[in-house]
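Posted in: Structural Biology > Protein-Ligand Complexes

Title: Requesting predicted complex, coenzyme A in pocket

I'd be grateful if someone could produce the 3D structure tokens for the following input. Sequence and ligand are given below.
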Amino acid sequence: MRLSKKLAEDISHWKKLEGKRTLLRPLQRRDLQRSLLWLTDPMINKYLSQNFKDLTEEQEEKWFSYIQDSEADIVFAILEKDSSDHIGNCSLNKIDHRNGRCELGIVIGDKDHWNKGFGSDAVDILVNFAVEDLEIPTVRLNVYVYNQRAIKVYKKCGFKLIKVFKKDHLYNGKYWDTLIMEYDSRLVQDYQ
Ligand SMILES: CC(C)(COP(=O)(O)OP(=O)(O)OC[C@H]1O[C@@H](n2cnc3c(N)ncnc32)[C@H](O)[C@@H]1OP(=O)(O)O)[C@@H](O)C(=O)NCCC(=O)NCCS
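-- Reply #1 --
Done. Output follows.
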């Protein structure tokens, strides 16, 4: 059965979206100020597909209102399980039930939490939510080739490289490849 966005959010309220190290809950207005600090941090936004360098509170507020009404986007806050601290955000975007696909985005905003397994844990929860609860078999994402940490995480979580856009992203005076990676639950099942 296909779930509406409202139902999907309800599920995420009553069903614990819980991994070994993190919990996901729908993003709330009170999370926006902290999220803005993360998105405008040059150490973080160099990895993101949109340029959030000059993002303002007003623009973020507008984005949040848009997300609330959108049937095609769900954004979660990532909480550290032990402390309940809000350490990042992740999302499913462009949710396309007809073609069974969506896109994944993630930021662990608190840099002290990088390389401690939180990102991999959150990606696993999110992919499982897409496949099991939304019944979306295919999850895609874009990642720049210089983001080797993220590429490692996605591979660990079962994503495969499906396409490369050669030297299409300008960063730090150089052109870099953008990789398209995909998790296909049908493929994974077939080969297990
Ligand atoms: C990418 C991101 C989500 C990963 O989350 P994380 O919690 O730091 O990642 P994890 O600790 O789960 O895993 C990181 C893995 O990459 C490895 N790694 C770290 N730096 C690396 C590098 N330069 N090259 C290769 N692997 C690297 C780690 O050793 C670890 O692998 P392991 O578990 O086998 O030891 C997080 O770092 C982040 O939000 N970065 C900034 C924003 C971003 O890049 N978002 C994704 C955009 S596509």
